[in-house]
UniProtKB/TrEMBL annotation, chain A:
PROSITE patterns given in the database record: ABC_TM1
Protein name: Spermidine/putrescine transport system permease protein
Family in the record: Belongs to the binding-protein-dependent transport system permease family. CysTW subfamily.
Lineage: Bacteria, Pseudomonadati, Pseudomonadota, Betaproteobacteria, Nitrosomonadales
Keywords, alphabetical: Cell membrane, Membrane, Transmembrane, Transmembrane helix, Transport
Cellular component, GO annotation: plasma membrane
GO terms of biological process kind: transmembrane transport
Residues of the ABC transmembrane type-1 domain: 86-294
Gene3D superfamilies: MetI-like
UniProt KW Plastid keyword: no
Predominant localisation class: membrane
InterPro entries registered for this protein in UniProt: MetI-like (IPR000515), MetI-like_sf (IPR035906)
TrEMBL record, chain B:
Family: Belongs to the binding-protein-dependent transport system permease family. CysTW subfamily.
Organism: Nitrosospira briensis
GO cellular component: plasma membrane
Membrane topology, from the record: Multi-pass membrane protein
ABC transmembrane type-1 domain: residues covered: 61-247
Protein's name according to its UniProt entry: Spermidine/putrescine transport system permease protein
Compartments where found: Cell membrane
TM regions (residue ranges): 6-29, 64-86, 93-117, 123-146, 174-196, 229-250
InterPro entries named among the record's database cross-references: Bact_Polyamine_Transport, MetI-like, MetI-like_sf
Entry keyword set: Cell membrane, Membrane, Transmembrane, Transmembrane helix, Transport
């Protein structure tokens, strides 16, 4: 943590303690301790009226359950429903990541290859909408996909020509996907741009001189070099989507719930804290493995690219 | 080459349209003389007037302002310290603690803080719990900005100050602090924006009493959508835009003045 360094003067040690100490202490109390509490909570019994049952035996012995248990974990693994919701969330996160990648890549490439003086402005234009309130950005799609919107009327008119019954866009998995992509797109553009901007244009010229066509130049030169950017962008999109509850809540139908909604319900709806904690821990494990994978792939790609 | 460029440009134009049209629609309909966000009827300021007569919304705005000011103040203080400590002392644990809350899904921080507040601190949820929660995730953002600025700076400046006999405190107050000030201000503005916009963590750490702006907006969207939502959205966008412009101005002016010449271009 804050280890002594050899040859350090007393003043410097005090300075280090004064500068590093307060943020360390604050985060130990309000980040590390809450995480530990969550792990503890996952091993307890839920209380009769929400919350938790006591750890020690109650004096009047009116409550049946107390102490420590792995019941919530067993419950999680006993019902295939939860595995299905996790799978659905993974699919949603994968689809969002893929669409963001397909949209962001050409844009990032264009920004990286345009004149230097335009680059910052173009990046700013990607980030700017992102500065508006998160709920507002979701709400905007509620208007666009709503049953009375121009888009809905247009699509249903077109479908009508082919004799297909009208569809509703809002409150569907499609609406959730659109909302997820919209909210997370800048997370993909920025790391891709940062990577592509560093590419040496002479590599592409060399490839061209050696007879590579446009596709080969992209696939054999640009793409492999951009993999670290692809992986970090993907992690930055995938991870928040995995835990998102507001987008399905607002744009999705009743059947479109993801892990986030499930967790939210345990804490604010049915108030089953131990099970909510188990779900949160499972989400944390999923996030950690995704982040680990992205880092590993990115390092691997960097090594391949440079050697 | 030319043909593929046209393709790229039209794709980019489409993506920029995808980014901006939804927000433009929200702004446009805030001036629309109709309850439905469906078609343009006529210009009105009615929804803005309704908003300013909505006392609960005004209380919520005031509460959110108090929360954002307090959280950005404490996050700026702690985040600047964290940024300095991480840059200077090559610590192992502190960076993990500072940057993880930024990277993980917000819901996890919200839920664990909820459990912590209710079980350990026995705190009645309300303004205080929200301020603490917002501080926790804003520290990381401030630290990232401050550290980035320190990394762009010429280390010789600090050495020169020490050689001239400045104590660590003097070096900090007279050299380091003025140099990192733009990053500190940018971090403060960013924390303010993040705090006033935050929905997820606020949702879990709010009490039942006080109305808070994002929660109020959420309820309006879920329960009864009127263009009043568009009006408050437009005002919030304006506020964020102003904050970003100030931050960008400060940053540009400061880096033009204080970066060492060989690193200024980066």
């Amino acid at each position: 943590m804050i280890k002594g360094v050899k040859g350090e003067t007393k003043d410097a040690r005090i300075a280090r303690f004064l500068v590093g100490g307060p943020p360390l202490l604050f985060l130990l109390v309000f980040f590390v301790a809450p995480s530990l509490i969550m792990i503890l909570t996952s091993f307890r019994f839920p209380g009769e009226f929400g919350g938790l049952a006591p750890i020690t035996a109650p004096e009047d012995m009116t409550i049946g359950e107390y102490g420590i248990t792995s019941e919530a974990y067993q419950f999680f693994f006993s019902d295939v429903l939860y595995a299905k919701i996790f799978l659905k969330s993974f699919l949603m996160a994968s689809a969002t990541t893929l669409i963001c990648l397909v949209m962001a890549y050409p844009l990032a490439m264009l920004i990286a290859r345009s004149e230097k003086r335009f680059r910052n402005l173009m990046v700013l234009l990607v980030v700017l909408p992102f500065a508006s309130n998160f709920l507002i950005r979701i709400y905007a799609w509620m208007i666009i996909l709503g049953p009375e919107s121009g888009l809905s009327h247009f699509i249903n008119a077109v479908l009508g020509i082919f004799g297909i019954a009208p569809i509703t866009l809002l409150f569907s998995p499609f609406a959730v996907l659109v909302g997820m992509v919209y909210v997370h797109l800048p997370f993909m553009v920025l790391p891709l741009y940062t990577n592509l901007e560093k590419h040496d244009p002479s590599l592409l010229n060399a490839a061209q001189d050696l007879g590579a066509n446009a596709w080969q130049r992209f696939w054999r030169v640009t793409w492999p070099l951009s993999l670290p950017g692809v992986f970090s962008g993907s992690a930055l999109v995938f991870i928040p989507v995995l835990g998102m509850f507001a987008v399905p809540e607002i744009l999705g139908g009743t059947g479109d719930i993801l892990i986030g909604n499930l967790i939210k319900d345990q804490f604010l709806g049915t108030r089953d804290w131990p099970f909510g904690s188990v779900l949160s821990i499972m989400l944390t494990l999923a996030v950690l493995s995704i982040a680990g994978l992205a880092t590993w792939f990115s390092r691997f790609a960097t090594r391949q690219g440079t050697v | 080459m030319g043909r593929s460029n046209i393709w790229l440009w039209s794709l980019a134009a489409l993506i920029y349209a995808f980014l901006y049209i939804p927000l433009a629609i929200v702004v446009l309909y805030s001036f629309n003389d109709s309850r439905l966000n469906a078609e343009w009827v006529g210009f009105t300021l009615f929804w803005y007037k309704a908003l300013f007569n909505n006392t609960e919304m005004l209380t919520a705005a005031r509460n959110s302002l108090i929360i954002a000011l307090s959280a950005s103040f404490s996050a700026t203080l702690l985040g600047t310290m964290a940024g300095l400590a991480i840059h200077r002392y090559k610590l192992k644990v502190l960076p993990v603690l500072v940057f993880t809350p930024v990277a993980m899904p917000e819901i996890l921080l919200g839920v664990s803080l909820l459990l912590f507040f209710l079980q350990v601190l026995n705190l009645t949820l309300g303004m205080v719990s929200i301020i603490i929660a917002h501080t926790t995730f804003c520290i990381g953002f401030v630290a990232i900005i401050v550290r980035a600025r320190l990394e762009g700076m010429d280390e010789n400046i600090f050495e020169a100050a020490r050689d001239l006999g400045a104590s660590p405190w003097q070096t900090f107050r007279l050299v380091t602090l003025p140099l990192i000030m733009p990053a500190v201000v940018a971090g403060a503005l960013m924390s303010f924006t993040l705090s006033i916009d935050d929905f997820v963590i606020t949702f879990f750490t709010k009490g039942v009493g006080e109305p808070i702006l994002p929660i109020q907006i959420y309820t309006m969207i879920k329960v009864a959508v009127t263009p009043e939502v568009n009006a408050i959205s437009t005002l919030l966008m304006l506020l964020t835009l102003i904050m970003i412009t100030i931050a960008a101005r400060l940053e540009a002016r400061a880096s033009a003045r204080t970066m060492s010449p060989d690193k200024a271009g980066k």
